[in-house]
Amino acid sequence: MSLYSRSLRRLLDSWPGKQRFGVYRFLPLFFVLGAALEFSMINWTVGETNFYRTFKRRQAKNYVEEHSSQTNSA
Hints:
Keywords: Membrane, Transmembrane, Transmembrane helix. By secondary structure, the chain is an all-alpha fold.
């Protein structure tokens, strides 16, 4: 067992709620990390673009392509 895994095990064992919640005691941590990721995707921009602008642009492009292919086939 290496030093890294021993220190990781010590950190995980010191996390509160082990007897009552078991593995589920980490859920609040992952919830907060997920919320922070979502917040960063909404608010951080690189140049003039962020994740949601790119996603919306791609959705609009797919809609236009689908609509034009349906119009051309009819």
